[in-house]
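Table S2 (text version). Query chain:
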Amino acid sequence: MTEPMFGRDEECRLIKKYLSSNRSEFVAVYGRRRVGKTFLLRQTLDDSLCFSFTGLANAKNSEQLLNFHITLRRYDPGAKACANWLEAFDQLQDYVENCKQEQKVIFIDELPWLDTPKSNFMPAFEHFWNGWASGRSDVKLFVCGSATSWMLDNIINNHGGLHNRVTHEMFLEPFSLGLCKQYFDAYHFGYSDREIAEFYMIFGGVPYYLSLMDKEQSVTQNVDRLIFGAKGELRNEKENLFRSLFRHSEDYVAILDAISEKRKGLTRAEILEETKLDNNALFTKRLEELEKCNFIRRYEDYSNRQRNTLYQLVDPLCHFWHNIVEQNKHRDEQFWSHSQNSPLFNTWSGLAFEMLCLNHVQQIKQALGISGIQADVYSWRTPADVTPGAQIDLVIDRADRCVNICEMKFSRAEYEIDDTERGKIENRILQFQRYAEPRKSIRLTMVTGYGVKHNTHSSIVQNEVTLADLMR
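Corresponding structure-token output:
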């Protein structure tokens, strides 16, 4: 039995809208590996498909053409072998014109794999759309691919024959923390909010990783089985992920590894210094693609009243790999179970929870009741020569002249502010007030798992946001 669609209501609505339009549509769906592009399109298009075809990974052009011929022959037994892609698309055109469906729905999966060296695939594909399909009102062409750099260069941002020809682009994002909770609840995993948060802090909201979870095991046991086990399905996931997304993936990995070393992120100049990559338009493109795929975020650091653009890692799986998986030097198959309550776990979980919060700023704003208020979101720290120094990883600077200074703490119970912690928080606020725009009210906002324990020090808190809020 096919697993039912989950968490993609808006995407399904849009696809059905495109199917019912009175013009031909060219829809490009892209996103990271395992995010559910193929599943979404097959589930929503299957009943109306006129033709569906999937490219082969790491295949020669002759093999791609043979695969196309074999596929087309299933729809049209009279289809002939094709010497090149012009002939292939000409045959597809003839078949589709005679297709009885009112709407001619075509789905080409893993489109980037078809563009092999010297194949002349793109000119033929452009001619198919520009010379025939776009002039009709009944062709609905859906394409997708995990090779994000190829999809962006050749389809979304094409400057050649397909320039501005895509009628709709759809970037498929991972699930939010709230959707992860809905999934685990719907399938009766029985996980607590903290366990669900830990899942997200490791895997993000990638649907495929959700599907691999075994409800008979805890999150910790599942991580050991999937990542650290000798036969774990995800033991090589980082390498496979970047190879599937980007050509010349080593450059992207080098950028991410450099950024991973610094909690606050790095400037462009610092990344160039660390990676020794060339400072050119290609480097800019690499950064933009990593940001587009939600591996990194670009934000303004308001240190010393100077706006410095920083690039910071926000992908949970990459963070977990860099800080945990690569520390398993002895290939311990229960490494994650053995790391619970260790300094390694505590350091990772604090940073991973901050990353979770940075990926859910909208939920934080909603919990604060400020969704409708324009606000700048940034990080802040004192200049290097200021002692004692201070840094704030999430500042929400609101148009109503209020500033939420967010302290993000991951704990197993209510978070308790003691005398030492209060001193640190008050120092951050005092330092921030010296550099912030005057006459703005400062509101200390604690983002925690289960709220703040009320004691003599908790009175400094104006707002609280909990995991329950982040899961809405």
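Notes on Table S2: The chain has 20 helices and twelve strands. The mean pLDDT is 93.
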